[in-house]
Amino acid sequence: DGEVHINELKNGNAEMFWNPTSEVRRQRLKRHIVLFEEQTDFESERLWQHVTSAINKGDQHKATQEKFVLEEEQRNTARERRENGTEWKPLLFRHDAATNEWHYKYEDLRPWDPLNDIAQFEKDGILQTMERHLSTRMSNHETTCINNQITRHKRSAKDCRRRKTSDQPSNHSQNTESSCSTPESVQELSDDDGKYLGFESLCAQCGKEMNHLKEIHSAVLSLQRAQQDIHR
Known about the structure:
This protein is of the alpha+beta class.
């Protein structure tokens, strides 16, 4: 976020290449770093601290020496593993035998969802995304609980219709019909519709979370309509 100049060595002229405005500086991403004293021995900032210090001081000879020390130590460690028959198992990377390349295990290549994704951060080397809990990202427990309610609801409606169409109506069957609380229209209930119904027998946690999800869903729809109005 600083100025960048191009210096022409032939004629000594200097040209401004990049000069960020105050607006650009305000939009820069906030940097989150782990405190140096909390870093492990193989964190880049700690591992390369002497090389970095030499570079900052403009001491190229010292930087080269410190870099050689690090790389030689890594070579010796690899040599010892080969001699001892110890297999190296990376924690964060996997090897692709087809391309002979290393890939980060926890890479997240999906597009950023501004309606659901809040922030992305790294913890213990693992890339993680903080998300809002929209209805489209319900937990397995919630989904299973709701689907069970829908199944029981449909079964109740089917039993009710079967009693209604009995070949031998009686006072008992009429009472059964009148006491049946499930309306006949429930046979058209879809799984998606069931997600937004307030079933009485939902567990307390699911019921609370479902209400919260419905509120978020309504808020998101309102935001989407506002965005559409802005675009128009």
